[in-house]
Amino acid sequence: MSAGAVSVQALLVAHGTVPAVRGISFEARAGEVLTLLGPSGCGKTTTLRAVAGLEAPREGRIAIDGRTVFDAARRTNLPPERRGLAMVFQSYAIWPHMTVFENVAFGLRARGVADGDLAGAVRRSLDLVGLGALAERPATRLSGGQQQRVALARSIAGDPRVILLDEPLSNLDAQLRLAMRAEFKALQRRLGLTAIYVTHDQEEALVLSDRVLVMRDGAIEQAGTPAEIHDTPRSRFVAEFVGVRNILPCEVAEAAALLPGGLRLPVREAAPDGPAAVCFRPISVQLFPHAAPGAHPATVVAATYLGDFMQYELRCGELAICARGLPRPDFAEGAPVFWSVPADACFLVAT
Amino acid sequence: MLRAETVLGIGVSALVAVLVLPPLIAVMVTGVGAGFAPLRHTDLVLNTLLFGLLTTLGALVTGGALALALGAGVPGRTLLERLVVMPLYLTPLLTAMGWNWLGSPRSGLLNLLLHAAFGPHVTLDIVSPAGAMAVAALATAPLPFLLISDALRGLDPALLEAARVHGAMPARVFRRVTLPLLLPAGLAAAMLVFVQAIGLFSVPAVLGMPAGFYVATTEIYRLLESYPPRIADATAWGMLLLAIAALLTFTQSALLGRRSFVTITGKAFRPNLRSPAAPGLRAALAWLYVALATVLPLLALLWAASSAFVTADFRLMRFTAAHFAFVLFGYPKTWLAVGNSVLLGVLTASLVCLLGLAVSWVVLRARQAGRGVLDQLSMLPLSMPAMVFALGLLWVYVRVRLPIYGTIGILLLAYCTHYLPFGVRTSSAALRQLHPELEEAARVAGASWLRTMRRITFPLVQPAVLAAWVLLFVMAMQEVSSSILLYTSRSIVLSVAVFDLWENGNPSDVAALGFLQLAASFIVVSLVLGLRQRRGVT
Q: What is the set of domains in chain B, with CATH numbers?
């Protein structure tokens, strides 16, 4: 197994009698960013905390860097301090009774780094996150973004191979979130860190990750690259979670979806077994003011201004369709329109 | 692999069980088997209930009015908030003695003034059932004041504003919104005060016994002081107190279990209570309380301690330092008692803080089975009056024959158990303020459990724990109810020495010794706080 890899097998964590994680397995390869994505309560944070040693799983096996840190069968359970990890917490967990320097130096001291070597390592980490000038500042006098940077500096100070991040950006405002996202990505590449990243923000997951695990009710719903997750959700749950607005229950015939009202939409892939729904994103919907080949008639129910584009809610027989496009005066509310969606933008999911 | 957390959890649970359970079981076993003396003295049972009920009512009304008055904003609010809780630092014993010198029918200072102004028929008789209840209410009012003030601070002002916006007049807002929201805190306070009142020994002893008014605690004392001591009967009275307290605790949790109000928003409380009284009137009310509960009794104490002899006649009064000299140099028990009290105070405060922190850490942080039981167990002493607990201890340690009987060890045991709930509550409050991730971050960063405690948890809870330490020290210094049953001539403590002198000595010497007790508390507390300031820890 390569250095920096994390392997989780058949992990089962329960709080009391309620299972929070139901026997999941996955692997984070060395140097990649693996994201656990899902709504709150899906078990993503519990999984991360189990890797860190902050939760006691019932079953399974966890190995970091080829070393087994938890094995229910062999009753192995290393305490967090002996797993050699770094972690960024959602609350940042900056110790308020210490300076920035002391916060970053804490882990080095705990692992027995001599005072002489300490200062250099602390400086280097602080410089990496752009906080070199604030070393002596009390931790209570930091802004949210600065606290986030200290948390990052603290976690990389000990030269870890693996870093765990628990919704690290969720407490920042939108602009800062974008900036920190880019900074973290650059830092991760530069240091070659293996990262396991927990978030409920699908955009964050897609931008940051090499691979994404979408979790639901303590199980992995779908695993894949960001493009796979975004373009080919395999279930209604994943489709909804990655922002597919049009999910229409349908019959399947050959390479097309049959919708109520006699509508027939060609799809790009063969159908899964059982009941299905046809899915496409609002941005894939093409709108025409007049009849066009393959386009279906509809009425604009609502036109909502969203800044860069308009969102149109259409009624097409019994169907409600959501579309996005540039603002056009002839698509006002109540106006008749025609819509179509290309076959390669349509896919089927099991329902 | 056995981790440090697990060891701590098991150790703490075992320790708390050993502290709390044996005396409790002893009281229940012997109390039930003793033919149940209280059944033959229903008048004393009624006295006890009446004393508890009226004291609670008085304390609740006083404390609640003070909380509302100060909460609505008054001039000098910060100062008043501190002065109002002073009775916590005085002792009920000293307050009762102070009021005795103020209001005893023939020689009380206030009665001298009344007689001079209105003639000899206008007399305030504080040495009476009513007087005892009034003074007990004054002495216990800070408790409901603190609880209700907390609840007021936690009230979301938007709830009151919403009522106003939707058309309710201020009086209606107060009646329909503010009061119901304060109800849980009020009930909790009433329960606590009632348990404390029926377990209160010093006030009924000083102001009730001379008037022939006996309650359960003074009856226990009388039974144990008689020759031969009637331990079984005394324990039966203890069992009665325990049963009442347990019933109340149960009722309270049953009542509050169904309606708990979460109104905490973290926003600073804005004083928009619209109290019916003007700020000046509200301040006057608070000052009146401070005068009655603290200033007047203290002045009376000072007057008694420095009078050559306690006289009813202003023209005969002479002042002297002889009484102070006597208690400092002439009274043989003074320095032994000072040493014992300070040692007990320091040990009790330190051990209770440590144990309280350990219990609350296990309950809040460790993922250990049975931590709910530990939580309940550590709160049990709350519904066990100190005197009842002392009875149980006596019973256990007379039989077990541990060498602590007759030493301050048994007092330490009693104090630590009695104050454990206080230690656990304050530590829990402090720990709840700490995000668990602060500790987890240290663990992940490579620090062991012990190092995490030492470097992260202790420094962060230190201010709250230190405040608790100071209050615990003061409370231990003034403890009378259990000390009076457990002390021997070698293990006498200051509060007992004061009571001893009260029963058998010169009133002026008592007052001087009472002052010494206050001074000892004050000096140790100042030393501790000074030390903390010098170390620059805030």
A: 1-24+321-538 (1.10.3720.10), 34-264+277-315 (1.10.3720.10)
